[in-house]
Design a protein that fits this description.
The protein is α/β, with parallel strands linked by helices and 124 residues long. The protein has helices at 32-37, 58-74, 85-93, 106-119; strands spanning 2-9, 12-21, 45-56, 77-81, 101-103.
Length: 124
């Protein structure tokens, strides 16, 4: 997976996942988010577009779940959006749509991040 940083605007960080979402692409020890943006990324609202992801395997789902949990622990939020039909179907079959924050498109993802911020009294 190639994770491209699109923008970083204060609390909101936008990435795009391109290619295969699998641990084979980033190795056992590396965290693709911290490699690109540093440990502080988990304190932000992070939107990841899945519109160019070819597929997600079980190690990719594991990474998404682990990242989701770390964002929650450290006060940030991970929102996936614009998933390809194959990625959306896999995440639904694995019931990850009940756990992960998912939005149909980037606009909905931004709205979700904004609603989350307001419900937490402007704290992340």
């Amino acid at each position: 997976m190639n994770l491209k940083l699109l923008t970083s605007d204060g609390e909101l960080v936008r990435f795009e996942a391109v290619g295969k979402i699998t641990r084979d692409c980033w190795g056992q020890q590396a965290d693709p988010l911290t490699s690109l943006f540093g440990d502080g990324v988990y304190q932000h609202k992070c939107l990841i577009s899945l519109s160019h992801s070819l597929y997600i395997d079980s190690t990719g789902v594991e990474w998404l779940l682990t990242a989701h949990q770390r964002f929650h622990r450290e006060g940030g939020m991970l929102i996936l959006h614009s998933a390809t039909p194959a990625a959306k179907q896999l995440l639904r079959i694995m019931r990850m749509d009940l756990v992960l924050h998912m939005a149909a498109n980037e606009r909905e993802a931004i709205d979700l991040a904004t609603r989350h911020e307001k419900s937490n009294g402007n704290q992340h």
